[in-house]
Every structure is written in C-alpha cells, then in structure tokens.
C-alpha cells in the first residue's frame, strides 16, 4: 500500500494510474477503522482496479469540540487493517493540507432541508463540514466510485446531493449495508469509547429498530416510538430522536405507510457517547 500525505503527490500518482486505465474506488474515513470500513474496502476492491482510502478526522464537521478531541486515533492499526484488506493507496493528510487557507476558505454547500432535520438539527454545522471535506477529497481523488456506509443514512443522502451539486455525473455513489456486532449494535468508531456496561446495553438501539419494522402492519408508529423511547431511557440512554421517514427523501412520516419504502432512525447518547443507527424497510 502506498501512503500519501500531500494532495499534489497523490494527484500525480492517480493521474498516472488513470492514464494506464485504472478505475478508482474511493473510501473516505476518519480512521479508527473497524469491520464496517473494511467491508467498504472489500466492495471497492471487487468493483475497481485501484482502491484509495483516506483517513482524516475533519475538524469542521464536529459540532462538539470534546467529541473531536476524544475521537479515537489508531493510525498504526488502521494501516495494518488496510494492508490486510488489500487497499492500494492511503491518503492521510494534515489539517493544513486539507484547509491550506484556513477552514473558512473551503467552499461549503447548501443541502437545503436535509440539513434542517434529524442530524442536521441535532448537530448544527455538521453537514456543512462533511460537504467541505468530502467536496475537497473528491476534487483531489476524482474517483469513479465512492463507497459509503448506510449507518450514516442522512450523510449518504447529503453526499449523494453533494455529488450532484458538484456536477460529478460520472461518479457513482455506492451505499453499503451496515455491519453489525452479534447483538446488532452497528459498528462505529465511537463504540470503542463505550464502557463495558454501556456496551452491554447498546444493543437496545438495534432491538428498537427491529421492533419498529416488525410492528409496521400492526401498530401506530407513535405507540412504537413511545415504547422505544422508554426502553432506551430504561437502559440509560438520553434520546435525541426515534424517527420514521420516507426512505428516499428523509421527509418525516407521521405514521407507517403501506407500499412505501421507509426508514426508521435513532440517535441516542449513553454517557458521553452518541450513537446513531437506522433500518430501511
Ligand atoms: O463518515 C465519516 O467517516 C465522515 O463523515 C467522512 C465521510 C469521512 C467525512 O469526513
């Protein structure tokens, strides 16, 4: 695996490989890699001849300074995992490299209503930061395929919109299934910050999603939503939302709708750790 710290060098390498016919699959990450990320690398490898991964803990997408400061950094372990997974290139830039003129010098995008609900409401400025960094990475890497995990459902929608806003019509966004622990907990870099007790309780988020799906033909969503909130609170969570939305648009749905693809989404905090998950049905 070739490692680059500087965009110009990476760009030069990619141009040469592209001139030789390489098809590029790109997996952007913030590091602290787990099986979920590695599944994205695996999918990118199956589809492309050159797989590029980036590791960059992007300061502009953290609305909470302490979350940024405590974000796990496990670079050596990440590099080993990427080599084992057969990743070809790792881009691991510094903040100065990504924001040479300062963070406000990089273009932001207006994602409209997508920024004004769920994660957008709970984490003001978060998607602005995601747009800034993913936009910049796409300009540097110019991949044909971009791989994202479904766990960050709203982020997938925001980035798909970003790709359209940037006019990257040749770029295909591939959304890959959430990889889960045996108890259903969605894999996340933040899971490693859970205490043993918190970790033992965290599977309840998945149980709630399963219950929301399984009751679609027999119950009102408001009833299931209340049950889920109570269960989460009983397990020690502070709930940001238990929501039901139209899967294609993420517009809120007051209740289950027959024959319509829906997504249930949960965000809840246990101690200092905020977890999100979703299920499409
Ligand atoms: O999902 C993430 O890890 C990040 O939001 C991303 C897409 C790498 C942008 O920093």
Please describe what this structure looks like:
This protein has about 280 residues and is an alpha/beta fold. It has helices spanning about 5-20, 35-45, 65-70, 75-85, 95-100, 120, 125-140, 155-165, 195-200, 205-215, 220-235, and strands at about 1-5, 25-30, 50-55, 90, 145-150, 170-175, 240-245, 260-270, 275-280. Strand 2, helix 2 (about 35-45) and strand 3 (about 50-55) form a beta-alpha-beta unit. The protein binds pantoate (PAF).
Can I get a quick summary?
This protein is an alpha/beta fold. The chain has helices at residues 7-19, 35-47, 65-70, 75-85, 95-98, 119-122, 126-141, 153-165, 196-202, 204-214, 221-234; strands at 2-4, 24-29, 50-55, 89-91, 145-149, 172-176, 238-246, 262-270, 273-280.
Q: Give the strand content.
A: 15-25%
* Cα separation of the termini: 38 Å
Assembly state (oligomeric): single chain
Number of helices: 11
Structural class: alpha/beta
Order of helices and strands: EHEHEHHEHHHEHEHHHEEE
Cofactors and ligands = pantoate
| Mean residue pLDDT | 97
Largest sheet: 6 strands, parallel
Give the radius of gyration: 19 Å
Shape: globular
Cross-sheet strand order for the largest sheet = 1-4-3-2-5-6
The poorly predicted ranges are none
Number of strands: 9
